[in-house]
Amino acid sequence: MPGILLLVGATVTLAITLFAPRRLMQSPRTALVAGVPLAAAVLMTIYVFGEDSYVGDGTSRWVRYNGGAHTLYAVAIALDLLGALVVVVAVVRGAPGWTRAGLAVSSFACVGSLIAVIGFTVN
Question: What is the tens place of the pLDDT at every residue in 23-42?
Answer without folding.
Answer: 777 788 887 888 888 888 88
